[in-house]
Design a protein that fits this description.
Low-confidence stretches: 95-99
Largest sheet: none
Strand content: under 5%
Distance between the termini: 38 Å
Number of strands: 0
Keywords: Cell membrane, Ion transport, Manganese, Membrane, Transmembrane, Transmembrane helix, Transport
Subcellular location: Cell membrane
Family: Belongs to the MntP (TC 9.B.29) family.
Protein name: Putative manganese efflux pump MntP
Radius of gyration: 17 Å
Mean pLDDT: 77
Pfam families: Mntp
Structural class: mainly alpha
């Protein structure tokens, strides 16, 4: 019994670690004015990608783990830097349209960029023989909850910071992307 509890707790901590990037990015997103429906859709999409990416990693784990593991992290970080830069620069020009918004393809790009580390984790889990269904369930649920929490906290901060909140949100995305690329 204690072995199952220990594995559950380990997977829960791993799920929290994987979901913290979604939380950080969602802080920045929450500073944009979004309806609650959009917040719900973004959180669910991020959770879905936190299920899909580790699953793909688990399936392909033994085949390609040593060849492209470092590349996926670089791509995810660069995507976050690009999204954050666009958000930061658009805050100085209120007439410009946002190129990447958390709608449609932009939402999938965002969800992909914050869940790509789950692919690398999945590679490792595929080799270790962990309980796949439990791990994927925890990754999806925890990342969804953390994304929602980040967006709700970001909404509150937006009310306090006003016009500067989009600059802060873009800066958060850029900083997180740089941390992924260089950290």
């Amino acid at each position: 019994m204690s072995g199952y509890v220990g594995e559950f707790i380990s997977l829960l901590f791993l799920a929290i670690a994987l979901g913290l990037d979604a939380f950080s990015v969602s802080l920045g997103l929450g500073m944009q004015r979004m309806r609650l429906k959009r917040v719900a859709i973004i959180g669910l999409t991020i959770g879905l990608f936190h299920l899909i990416m580790p699953f793909i990693g688990i399936v392909l784990g033994q085949v390609i783990s040593g060849k492209i593991g470092h590349l996926t992290t670089l791509v995810g970080g660069m995507l976050l830097i690009g999204i954050g830069s666009q958000m930061l620069f658009s805050s100085f020009n209120y007439k410009s349209m946002k190129i990447i918004q958390p709608i449609g393809a932009g939402l999938f790009l965002l969800a992909f960029s914050v869940s790509i580390d789950g692919f690398s984790v999945g590679l490792g889990l595929g080799i270790s023989g962990v309980k796949t269904a439990l791990a994927l369930f925890l990754f999806a649920v925890v990342s969804t909850l953390l994304a929602w929490a980040g967006m709700f906290i970001g909404r509150k901060v937006h009310g306090l910071l006003g016009a500067y909140s989009e600059i802060l949100g873009g800066s958060i995305l850029i900083a997180f992307g740089l941390t992924i690329v260089f950290g």
